[in-house]
Amino acid sequence: MKRLPWFPGLRGRCEGRAALGAALLAVPLLLALAGPWIAGLTGGPGPRAASFTLGGGHWLGTDFTGRDVRQQILLGGRSVVLVALSATALGYLVSVPLGLAAALTHRTWLDDLLMRPLDVVLAVPSLLLLLLVAALFEPGAAGLALLVAAVNVPDTTRMVRAAATEAAARPAVEALRMQGETWWRIAVGYVGRSTLRTLTADAGLRLTGALYLVATAAFLGVGVAPDAADWAVMVDRNRTGLFVQPWAVVAPALLIVALSMGSNLLFDAALARKGTNHADAADRREN
């Protein structure tokens, strides 16, 4: 039985989604990585102008203090983008081993030892935990990335544990144990690979959540200075003049949205493409 006739259209939609996601993601990433270099290469637009004005070499106008919005956008992406990406990667770096260990252990006490402390952290709202820790010391960009990663670890670990528990209960895992395979080969080679689809689907959500926390922390002055060149700070700092000079708010907000949407579109396209590849493999086995 062939199911191929409807796959070409699905593949086309996947490719279109991937192209759109890559285009959306490329803009904020390029500005975050190369923006400071471009800003230094082009130089500043000159002395500060009046608040919320256009013209005079200010292509996107000025902010409420008279600083050039274009220059602020070029300089302000690195803190938001790199902190959110670093926090997401660090969260998975901690959560995946914890979730796999909890799912594969046969010792209840070890499972409780790994998961119950995370349940305590999970009971505290993420933003409140961020503010409580920030009240004790002033985190920089690296500290903010660690804080955001830490508050995401409980949720991510429970997700990894749930996906890995289902994979660990399959007969294939018992067969691997009977063959004398190592824990590493079972955990990473089979169970870990079996959870990749779930992790891929979750990654876009975690990155969006990290962006939300980083931006909210920036609004509240955690991790960045109140006058810093930062996209999230720009949105908060200039919102009072939204209807006078919208670009100071709209431009950085659109870049944050593009980063979130682009990453989710790419992850969705990767999931759909993997699904069609599995279906093609099934068709070849049937034929």
Description:
There is one protein chain. The protein is mostly helical and 287 residues long. The chain has one domain: MetI-like fold, CATH 1.10.3720. It is 76% helix and 0% strand. The protein has 10 helices and no strands. It has helices at 7-42, 69-104, 108-122, 126-136, 141-168, 171-178, 183-194, 196-219, 231-238, 247-286. Helix 2 packs antiparallel against helix 3, helix 2 runs parallel beside helix 5 and helix 4 (126-136) runs antiparallel to helix 5 (141-168). The N and C termini lie close together (7 Å). Mean pLDDT is 79; it is low at 1-7 and 278-287.
Core attributes:
mainly alpha; single chain; elongated; disordered N terminus; MetI-like fold; 0% strand; 76% helix; 287 residues; disordered C terminus; 10 helices
Outline of the structure:
About 75% of the residues lie in helices and about 0% in strands. It has helices at about 5-40, 70-105, 110-120, 125-135, 140-170, 170-180, 185-195, 195-220, 230-240, 245-285. α2 (about 70-105) packs across α8 (about 195-220), α3 packs across α5 and α8 (about 195-220) crosses α9 (about 230-240).
